[in-house]
Structures are given as C-alpha cells and as structure tokens.
Amino acid sequence: MPRETIVHETGYDMEHEHVFIPQHRHHFETEEQQREAGSFGMWLFLLTEIMFFGGLFFAYLLYRNWYYDAFVPASNFLSVPLGGANTAILITSGFFMALGVWAAEVRKKNLLVIFLILTTLFGLAFIGIKGVEWHDEWAHHHIPGAGYDISEFVNPKAHGINDEKPLNVDMAQRTQIFFFLYFGMTGMHALHMIIGIGLLIWLIARAQRGDFTEGYVAPIENFGLYWHFVDIVWLFLFPLLYLINRHPLH
Amino acid sequence: MAHEATHEHHYHDPASITNPEHAEHHIVSPLQYGYVYIALLIGTALTVVAADVDMGIFNPVAALGIASTKAVIVILFFMHVKYQSNLIKLTIASGFFTFLVLITMTLSDYVSRAWGLW
C-alpha cells in the first residue's frame, strides 16, 4: 500500500506531516495517539477480566483454607504430567502469538499467518488435553452433583491409593467444593480460550488478506494482549489446582 | 487569523496530546521473546519441583511467588508493558492494586468473624 503523505490535510496550520493510512480515524490527532487509545481500552477490558477471575480465585482461597484436608486428596487426583504439559503448551502458544505481533510489526505477511496458525494449533492442543482430563474426572464420578462418588476419599486403600489419608464422610463431601471450583475455573478459562481460537481463525483470514502487514497492527496487538492474559490466568490455575500438597504422607 | 492560530496551537497540536515520552513505537525482537519463552518454561519446571519439596506453609508461598514472577515477565515483555507510556503502566498498576484492596477487605471480614460461635 502506498504511504501517501498529506500535508495540511485538515486545512489548519501544522508543523508536522500527516502520514495517511486508511485505518487512521479522523478523531485521533496522530496514528500514535490512536494506537495508544486502543491499547488503553484493551487494558481496561483486561482489568475487568482480572476482577472476574479474581472472584473465582477468592472463592478458591477461602474454601481452600476452610476445607484444606479435602482439597489435598482431591487436588492429588489431578494429573501433574498432563497439567504441566498443558502449561508448557500454553506458554508455547503465547510465544508464537508474541512472534506474530513481531511479524505484523515488520510487515512479514506469511510469517504472521504461520505464527497465528501455530498459536491456534497449540491452543487447540491445550483444549484437547483439558478434555482428556475432564473425561478422566467424569469417569471417576468426580463431577459435583447427585452422581458424585466420595468412596475414593473415604477409603483410598480400597481403590489402590496408598499415600492419602482417609477422610470422614463429612470432609469427603467437601471434595465436591474443590471439583466445583476446579471445573468452574478451568471451564471459564477454557471458554476464554475457545473464544480466542474463534477470533484467531478470523484474524488468520484477515492476515492472509494482508490487513495487518501494511502498518496497521492494532488488532493483532490487542488480541495478543487478550491471549497473553488468558495464559497468565492458567499460570496461576496450574499450581493452585494441581500442586496443593503432593504426597502428604511421605 | 491570529486568534484562530493560537486556538489551534492549544487544542490541536498533537505534541500536547500524545504522550511526549512515547515518541517511537518499540518492537520487541524475536530473540528477546525467545529468552522470555525459555524463562517461562524454566519457571514451570521449577513450580513442579518446588511442589514436591516439603516446605510446610511456604509451599503455596513459593508456588504463588513463581507464578507471579512468570506473570510479571509475560506482562512486561509479551504484553509490551515495559515499553508503554506511563498512562498505561499506571492504569494496569491501579487495576492490580484495586484487586488487592478487594481481596484484603473481603478477607479481613472473613477472618474476623466468630464462625460457629453464635
């Protein structure tokens, strides 16, 4: 796209030159100001997201302190290898997203498309592994509700679990609160990822068209902020849900 | 018109509206992203290892410390906050501060009640 220089575009006396790009809205004085306003707005949205997830984290904090004895065996039921692998996968996805922003900045269209596709693929891999884990918990009747089974927590030895303290029935029922928070928090996180993957597919199509490699990178940059935010939420979810107290009897 | 010129100078001079310290847009290099990526993977391995070491009440402290460090690295470099204007930095900091205030005030209510004693 030709970068046309328009001087005195708006008719009043200016000491600087306007670099004209089609995405530059007339109500912003400069492209830089437009970009800053966009980032600012995106960050305000992310702050509301911090408050949203913050409520979930607070509920976790409170119930973990009240029912710590139930949270330990319930947390130990989760698979650290799967959770750890998913953490690495999500970090990798975020890395490719960051490279995508770079590719847009230096106007490399093909690289941008490749990095966005890799971001999407690693995001999908994360959701896939999460699905395997959820299925595992479903198979063990660990979904809170009428079908919930506390027997593994009341009598762990009968289920071949030798390194957990047996819980009394009352405390064993509290493991439902852990799984309620687990499904709520990982589910809300996964929902954010699914929305993100939907947006990524749309961005890939637009990137392919060359929308973001002619000097207009704001949509890629702001989506990157969203994607990294979702990563950060998982960086806290992983240790808090999976690593509460491994092997308490050792 | 002299009057109009003054008016334009005050209200439409871009220099008085955009942040003067935010002059040039910073592009983070792929190499730097690579360092950040490796640091985040090391942090993840460290979290898993630290969870298996019995540190008593310091286990969650270590876990949250590592997670917070990773989060700060992501915010500063992947999210470019290190290179943003003070306006955006201050906005983000105020958001986290507000979140901490909400946590602290709610917790102070919960810990100061005589649970089960009424």
Q: What does it look like?
A:
The complex is a heterodimer of chains A (250) and B (118). By secondary structure, chain A is mainly α. Chain A has helices at residues 31-66, 68-76, 80-105, 109-139, 151-154, 169-208, 218-242, and strands spanning 4-6, 18-20. A two-stranded antiparallel ribbon of chain A has the order 1-2. In chain A, helix 1 runs parallel beside helix 7 (218-242), helix 2 (68-76) crosses helix 6 and helix 4 runs antiparallel to helix 6. Chain A starts with a strand and ends in an 8-residue tail after the last helix. Residues 4-14 of chain A have low confidence and may be disordered. Chain B contains 4 helices and no strands. In chain B, helix 2 packs antiparallel against helix 3. Chain B has 118 residues and is an all-alpha fold. Chain B has a domain at 28-107. Residues 1-10 of chain B have low confidence and may be disordered. The chains are: A mainly alpha (250), B mainly alpha (118). Chains A and B meet through helix 1, helix 3 and helix 7 of A and helix 1, helix 2, helix 3 and helix 4 of B.
Would you kindly provide a brief summary of this structure?
The complex is a heterodimer of chains A (250) and B (118). By secondary structure, chain A is mostly helical. Chain A is built from seven helices and two strands, in the order ββααααααα.
- Name the beta content range of chain A: under 5%
Low-pLDDT windows of residues of chain A: 4-14
How many separate domains of chain A?
Answer: 1
CATH superfamily of chain A: Cytochrome c oxidase, subunit III, four-helix bundle
Overall number of strands of chain A: 2
What is the chain-wise order of helices and strands of chain B? Answer: HHHH
Order of helices and strands of chain A: EEHHHHHHH
Euclidean distance between termini CA atoms of chain A: 66 Å
CATH class categorisation of chain A:
Mainly Alpha
Would you tell me the structural class of the helices and strands of chain B?
mainly alpha
What fraction of the residues of chain B are assigned to beta strands by DSSP?
under 5%
Q: Which two chains touch over the largest interface? A: A-B, 54 and 55 residues
Count of helical stretches of chain B: 4
Oligomer: heterodimer
- CATH topology of chain A, by name, is Four Helix Bundle (Hemerythrin (Met), subunit A)
Mean pLDDT of chain A: 90
The separation of the N and C termini of chain B measures 78 Å
The radius of gyration of chain A is 24 Å
Largest pleated sheet of chain A: 2 strands, antiparallel
- Fraction in helix of chain A: 55-70%
Q: What is the CATH architecture descriptor of chain A?
A: Up-down Bundle
